[in-house]
Every structure is written in structure tokens, then in C-alpha cells.
Protein: PIN-like protein
Amino acid sequence: MQLWTLFITSSIPVLESFLITALGSFLALDRINLFGQDSRDHLNIIVFYVLTPALTGANLAETITLDSMIELWFMPVNILLTFIVGSIFGWILIKLTRPPPQLRGLIVGCCAAGNMGNLLLIIIPAVCEESGSPFGDADTCDTNGLAYWRYGFFSSSNILDLEISLSICVIGGIYLWTYVYNIIRISSDTSIQDSTQTTEISATSDHISCTEPLLSSEDNVDQYALPCTVYEGDAKMTRLGKIKEWMARMNEKLNLKAVFSPPTIGAIVGFAVGLISPIRNLLIGDDAPLAVIDDSTSLLGDAAIPLLTMIIGGNLVKGLRMSEIRKSILIGIIIVKYIAVPLTGILVVKAAVKFGLVSNDPLYLFVLLLQFAVPPAMNIATITQLFGQGQGECSVIMLWTYIFASLSLTVWCAFFLWLVA
Structure:
């Protein structure tokens, strides 16, 4: 395969993202004023609560089966490893650059979560169709030529759809929306609390004497007496009351409402529909009695990616004007995503092959390797918009990482093809 052809192939999904981003930026300009801050906030809420759950749920319900999970079990493990590797390098980057507290979660999220949806969906089939591909002729690559394809358990004619859909749903519905979502939430909460405490301290500092203790001795006595009072109250409670109180405390600490976000719930529903045969037969397939529900859900989910990309473009206008993100942070994220993580991914996949965890099929290995080399996931923009922290910085990060994505994906695709051939 010629390098120029590979460059064009890698650039197509990035160019599509740029065009939609440019549309969002154009509509957000002051003289156009069709996509202002309020509009983006409301649209982002719809994407979060409706479109993204529909995307993850529909894709999982249509593609996941018990046989496919057994056959491609290493795929979600590999994606989890991309998150772990990216998070480690993101944490190192934070230690080196010392960014503001509200950006720490964003930096870790951008280093950890990759765009494994529309980019792979365009790149991998295009690579299969090219002459000189190490995966054989196009028909063999697209049907049943590889070992993990032979069982015929998947109703679609293209196993790549299964791989990409599984990647989208696992990333969007489980890892990204349980891990990155909560990382950014905690970072945002911490920055807000620090800001509030700083304001309160500055407001009251003039009224506190430097030599006056904050607590009197009587206050200290009462403070130490409080636990005894609590224990006496607990002793009088029934066992059921204690269990209820413990569950309430655990729910408050874990913040299950935040952990089980709508996209995560959509992924859980998708798993249930895909794995439970009676429900699957009722909803999935052309002859299913309730196939219209699945079709409607897929139609909603298809709108998530373009609308999310437009939101990034709208935030980019404000981000370029007001963002104070340092160049060292941008350069660090680019180095992590396009050098450190892919190099580590090669070691991970090579180790998996050596220990017999995955078959030595070139296309499967190529997909696993490519998952370590993609740019940051665009859903991170939705998360920052929800918490009102780092929207402009996120848009600037997305702009520069996707500018470098064309060159980076081309280089890594060429190297990965050589590696698995």
C-alpha cells in the first residue's frame, strides 16, 4: 500500500470532523449567533441524556452476543489497557506541568480515552480494500478469511462492524462514562470547593485574631463527646435502621447517580438486550416484532456524533479567545497520545500474542494496535460542558490533537501494517 494512499485514508475521518467542527464554529460567531452558549448547553444535555445512551444501547444490542464476547474477549480488555496506560502518562504530565486543578481531570481524560468510533470505522475497511494489504484480498478481509471470523455467529456480513461497534459501546458506555466522567466530575468539584473555601477565608480573615484559637477548650470537649452520643443513638437503632443508614451513607460516598450516568445505563440495557435471547429476538432483526424500537433508537444515536462535534466547534470560538491553556500542556498531551501510548500499545499487544491471549491474525492485531494511536474521544467535550469546567480548553485540545491526527495516524498505520504483515 502506498504511503500517500494511506495518508488520504487516514485523513478522511479527521477531515470530516474538521468540517463539522468548522460549521459549529461558524454558527457560534457573534455575527451569526445561531449557536450561542445557552444553545450549546441545552443541546449538550440532550446529547448526554438521550442521544449517547441511544448510540451505546443500540450498537451493543445489535452486535453483542455471548459467542462474540467469548470470541473477542480481549477487545474490551485491550481498550481498558489503553485507558490505564493513558491515565498513567496523563498523571505524569500533570506532575510535570502542574496545571490548574480544574484542568487535571480533563488532561487525564484526554490522555486516557481515544476516539475508537468513526475513525476506525473508516480507516479499517479502507485498509482492507487497498491492494497490497497484508490482510489478503478485499473479499477475504471483509467476510470470513480470518480465524476469529470462522464461527459464523454474527448475523452481519462484516465482522469489522462488530469490532467497531463493540469498541464504541465499551468506550462510550462503560469506560468513558464511568471513569473519565467521574475523573472530570471530581476535578470540577475540587476546584469549585477550593474556590469557595478561598473566598470564605478571605472574607473572614479580617475578623479572626492571629492569637485567638479557632476552637475553645469547651468546644474541644464537646467535639470529643460527639462520637459517644452517636454511638448511644446507634445502640438504640434497630438492625434494619442501621442497614438503611449504612446504605444511605455508602450511596452518598459513592455517588451512584453520577457513576451510573445515562450513557452507562444505555450500555447496560444494550448488553441485556443483546445477551438475553428472548428480548433480542423481540427487538433485533428485520423480522423482529418490535424492530421499530431498535430502528428508532439507532436513528437517535446516529445524531450524537455530528451534534457533539458541532458543540466542540462552538466552544472553540470561545476557547481560542479566552483559553489560557499552556503550550506545555498541549505538547504534552500530543506526545502522550501519539508517541508514548502507541509505543506502549505495541508492547502490550506483542505480550498478548506471546502469552497466547489473542490469535495471531493480522487484521485483529492491527485493530488492537490502532486503538492505542487514536486521538482523544470527542465525548470528553460533552462531559466538560455538563460540569461547566474547561469547555474552551477542551476545544483547543481537540483542535490541535486532531490537526496532528492525520500525520500521526498515517505514520502509525503504516508501521502497524508492517508490524503485523
Remarks:
- Residues 134 and 421 are 5 Å apart (CA to CA).
- Confidence is low (pLDDT under 50) at residues 142-162, 208-228.
